[in-house]
Structures are given as C-alpha cells and as structure tokens.
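Listing S7. Sequence submitted for prediction.
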Amino acid sequence: MIITKLNTNQFKTLIILLGLIPLIGCSEVEKQLNTSQSINHTCPIVEKKNNILLDNEKNEPEISKIISSKSTNSSYRNQILNFTLSQLYFSPHATTLNSHTLLIAKVAGKDFFINSIPQKQNDFAFLNAISQMANFYKKPLAIKNRLTLIEKNISEYIYASNSLEQFIKDNQAELFKNKDLKRLYFRGAQGVRENELFARLSYVKRLSKLTKFAKDHNSINSYNSNYLFRRGNYSCSFDSKLHDSKMAILKRPKKSYYNTFSHYKDQNNYIIGITSSLPEINNSIKDVLLSNFENDNYTALCMSELKQGRRYILLMNGITYNAQVLTELINNFPSVSSAQEYMNTKRSLVLQNPKRTISEIYGTTKNEQGTAQYYTPALGKLTVLELNNGLSTYKDPRNGQLTCN
C-alpha cells in the first residue's frame, strides 16, 4: 500500500506499505506526486444490470438450469436454497463449507438475514447459514437431494473466475504438491486462468467422507446473528457504535477470497449472499478446500432504507477493519445517496498512538479530518448493489495505481 502525508496543501512524501501493518509505523521513502494525480481522482462508475450475479458471468447458463429445473419450479424458496448451495461448485476457493457467510433473502415479501461466523476451525458456517434459511422458510434442507439435483443439472466443467485464477497464482506451489487439488486446478504445469474451463467438484461423491468429518468435529455449528444494527437510514451486519471509537491495526492480515452472488426475481423475491474464505490447502478433504476460521477480513454489510423505490446494499471487504471503513463511509451520507456517490467518496480509517487519519488519494472529500493526514490509493474494496425493479451491480474501480480499471 502507498501512503502520502499532506504538508501545507502539497503532497511531499510517499510511504511504501506492505499490507496494513505499516499503518502503525514503517520507514518512509520520499517520492514526488503530481498534485492533479493525487487529489479528487475518480473513475467512471459502471452499472451492470443483470438479475443474476456470479463470480464469473459465463456460468449464468448453469444457474438457469438450476432455477428452471422441474424439481425447483414449485417454489422460489427451493430455488434460492439450491442457488446458494451451488456456490460451492462455482467458487470452490471462496465459498467453502466453513466460509464466513452473509445472506439476505426475501421470499413472498418475508425477509431473512443471517451472519454466520465459524467459531472453531471445523464449523461449517456456510452450511449452517443455508440450514437456518431453510428452517426460516419452512423447507427441508435435504442436503444430499439438493447436491444431487445440482450435479445432475450443471455441467461437469465450468468457467474459472478472476478470483480463482488469483488464488491459484497465490498458492501455486502448495496446490501443485497436492495431487487432488492439482488435478482440478492445473493443466500440466499451468494453473487454470480466468474464463478457462475447470472440472467442478463432486460433493455427492465426497458426501459420506464429509458427513463423517462433520459428525467427528461437530461441524454444523457457528455463531449466528439474525440481527441488523440500525444506524440512521442504514441497517448493518455489525454494531457501528463499536467502530465510532478509533483503533490501531495490530497485525498484518492474511489474504482472503470473496464470492458475491445474487438472484433477483422481483422486489419481493431475491437472494443476496457473500462468503469470505482463507483456504488452507493442507487442511483440505481430498479436493474440497476448507477455510482457516481465523479470518480477519470478514465482509461488512450495510443496507439503506428505501428511497424512491431504491435500496442500496454496500459490501466492504479487503482489509482488516472493513466495518470501521464502512462506518466512516456511511457517516458521510446521513441521507440515502446514490451508488456513484458512495463509490467515489474518499474512504478513511482513523488510528491512534499517534492519532492520524488514513484517507484515499482516490475520490472526492466529504469531511475534512482534524488529525494528521496520510493518503493511500485505496482502502479496501466496495461493491454496491442497487435493488430497483431489478438488480444493478457497481464494482469498485480502484486498483491501487491511480488509474481506472
């Protein structure tokens, strides 16, 4: 990460950071910055209208098979359960059995929310979230039947996402040593790349082993919260009051991988989910990855009140204190704004000992801080979903290089 300090309205220094640990101190490297490149730099915000959101849109035909299959047409409750469970196949590195899981659903106007967090290494938080949703909508989980239905309807080979490609690159040596994972994620010595086909998992084949593992480890448990915390015109997955107090970053976070997915039928029927995982290759069950439960990068979520028929869902991930950064962002907008405004506003993080504010070079300033100012190209990754007679997705244009994606 790159940070600059403001002195008499000029950017004079550039601090080279690795991750977030340097936010509490590291050596400085001087480098001049062009002021026009450093202040109020924004990018066009692209709206993508599509009622299906996946890690790779090329897999949408596979989802259509699941949604339209005869066994699921009887009820949208069944459709969203199968759709959510199918993420184990489409994003096997970011959606694991024990991923941190956030789900927001509405069926026939009846709202459901869950924040499922693993409390020990083998808590199957993702499966637990689906189980809770099934109970809420009074449908049996019937995990074997649902997995069989999914595997019967989707292709044996599906498209890899950019996130999966990055995961393979980040863990190439370890993956290559594991014969089961190597078979899935490599073609010879070359890792699978975005938009290339790879063999999907077969959970049905592994079900007896996974069931025994779950029984031995008491795995269908996790910390669950069905409560959304109110903050003005927003409802959040975390208590934002805890993040009004400023904090220091105490350790360097490990890299997590995220999967955001959604199916929107109409304003009274939809599902939105996001999982985050820190896969442990040495802890896999054959070719099924499991996450390290000590994941510091849980996604933070805030949902706006309806404004002129629109509702915004803000998802922040990518750094240790996603909740604090998202709290600071919504503090800039007591009234519900727009996706473009949320996205192009400078994000900040206020730290102590000594007190200072880390703000983005990217974006426009809403509130000036009275503390020492340091600047970085980007703080985390924001995704904004807009619900308005359809689903619109806005992805963060920040790439950490002061250029537009």
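Caption to Listing S7: primary sequence and predicted structure tokens for the chain studied. Residues 51-244+262-295 form one domain. The chain has twelve helices and 24 strands.
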